[in-house]
UniProtKB/TrEMBL annotation:
Keyword Transmembrane: yes
Protein name per its UniProtKB record: Glycosyltransferase family 87 protein
Highest taxon of source: Bacteria
Record organism: Nonomuraea purpurea
Keywords: Cell membrane, Membrane, Transferase, Transmembrane, Transmembrane helix
Transmembrane segments: 14-34, 114-137, 149-176, 183-207, 219-242, 279-301, 307-326, 347-367, 387-406
Main location: membrane
Membrane topology: Multi-pass membrane protein
Length: 440
């Protein structure tokens, strides 16, 4: 960097990001508008909630997890009523429930205020995630972040749960790594894992690229910082509220097959083995097999893959083999899918599949007990077209990313002599270990 470039004011550097921030704020506002039919009373009637496609976990959990009266993790409630999220989200819920109780004396009004406060945080998280993603993508691909800012699937799923918080932290991890701020990247990774568990998959992506390049010190610094940050935020609850703290981990281990998962289709249709076996075991073996394939691909590719490509493949593998695939999980994948391969055709096809799934899940729930409104809902076969629509379209994107890795000249991100915008120490790094070197 020249001295002239170093003196560019922060405001001047921020100007190119301003339109993206405004559009992301518009996306956050549209997501709020989508749920207005529920916010104005529809949440009190399940049929109205599903027919208006405005369900959220935020409002009912205020009551169901006793946030109106008690603190997460320390609550004197049955184990299955404890908050089933990692500690960062639990404490976010705690703070906003305190404010809601202070502002509103009525419990119903408190729940609405709790929702509004949470939406403000999620909207800010979306804007932050979009801006961070644009910075990661670099000046030549900055506008790719529009997919995260205002795509239909993001707008529809934005406020179902607290996933956008983890999304902003995850983009922060990538940007810190890209800028070679390994300690900061590790701290953000630890906080992201303590918010939602899926960012743990990014550690595997970093490990594989570290193995190939031999850049072990930055990797170890990042992992050490991540472990330290995770311990700092988790240790107080592990010590003083063990039962509440472990609820998330017990729930994740014991949870059966749930909505959106391909395992639900196999069980529903009575397929041998995949529809009859233990889903936890099947899911772990399936994920392990896909991760092994990603590892072989990373070490065998003619040119080192980009970090975003491996993160996308790992995260997609995690989602496709999971016991549950909620509609808001699209928020996990959008920024990584776009950074991995910003080609609008497969992305648009996938977005259509996600929009169809978003509609299908609520229509399907209308036809299930206890509502059993077959006149309003859809049946098994129609619902499972939406489940497989997501799987197939994500599989198509994964195949294109694999092709780009095997034929790096096809990778649009690597045009104009760009190696890896998010690579950090991997950017332009030489290979230290590949499968080809072993086989020589």
């Amino acid at each position: 960097m020249t001295s002239t470039e170093a003196r560019v004011p922060l405001v001047a550097r921020a100007v190119p990001f301003l339109p993206l921030g405004i559009i992301a704020a518009l996306g956050a506002t549209l997501a709020y508008v989508v749920r207005l039919p529920c916010r104005t009373g529809g949440w009190n009637d399940q049929v109205s909630t599903y027919t208006n496609f405005c369900y959220t976990d935020i409002y009912p959990l205020y009551f169901d997890r006793e946030l109106a009266t008690q603190n997460p993790y320390f609550a004197h409630v049955p184990f299955d009523k404890q908050v089933e999220y990692p500690v960062v989200l639990g404490e976010v819920m705690q703070v906003f429930s305190w404010i809601a109780r202070w502002v509103e004396p009525d419990r119903v009004a408190q729940a609405v205020r709790f929702y509004d406060l949470t939406v403000v945080l999620l909207g800010v998280s979306l804007v932050a995630g979009v801006l961070l993603m644009a910075a990661v993508a670099g000046p030549t691909r900055r506008w790719d972040a529009l997919w995260y800012a205002i795509s239909p699937a993001v707008v529809l799923a934005a406020y179902i749960n607290w996933d956008l918080v983890a999304g902003a932290l995850s983009m922060g991890v990538l940007l810190a790594w890209a800028r070679q701020r390994q300690v900061l990247a590790g701290v953000l990774l630890g906080l992201a894992i303590a918010t939602k568990f899926y960012p743990l998959m990014f550690a595997g992506a970093l490990f594989l690229l570290t193995w190939r390049t031999g850049r072990w010190r930055p990797f170890l610094v990042t992992m050490g910082s991540a472990a330290g940050a995770w311990i700092v935020v988790n240790a107080p609850f592990m010590i003083f509220a063990w039962e509440g703290w472990r609820r998330f981990y017990v729930f994740s281990a014991e949870r059966g097959v749930d909505w959106g998962s391909p395992w639900l289709f196999f069980q529903n249709k009575g397929w041998p083995i995949v529809g009859e076996g233990d889903v936890s075991t099947l899911g772990m073996f399936s994920l392990a097999a896909l991760c092994l394939g990603i590892a072989v691909l990373t070490l065998a590719a003619p040119r080192r893959p980009r970090l975003a490509q491996i993160c996308f493949l790992a995260l997609a593998a995690f989602m496709m083999t999971n016991k549950v695939w909620s509609p808001q999980f699209v928020l996990w994948l959008v920024p990584f899918a776009v950074l991995a391969r910003p080609n609008w055709k497969p992305l648009a096809l996938w977005q259509l599949a996600e929009v169809w799934y978003f509609a299908a899940i609520w229509l399907y729930l209308l036809s299930q007990p206890p509502l059993s409104r077959n006149d309003l809902g859809i049946g098994d076969d129609t619902y499972f077209t939406a489940v497989w629509g997501r799987i197939i379209t994500i599989g198509i994107m994964m195949a294109f990313v694999v092709r780009d890795i095997l034929r790096p000249d096809n990778d649009v991100v690597r045009q104009a002599d760009i190696d890896d915008p998010a690579g950090g120490v991997f950017n332009d790094a030489r290979d230290r270990f590949t499968l080809a070197s072993v086989l020589r």
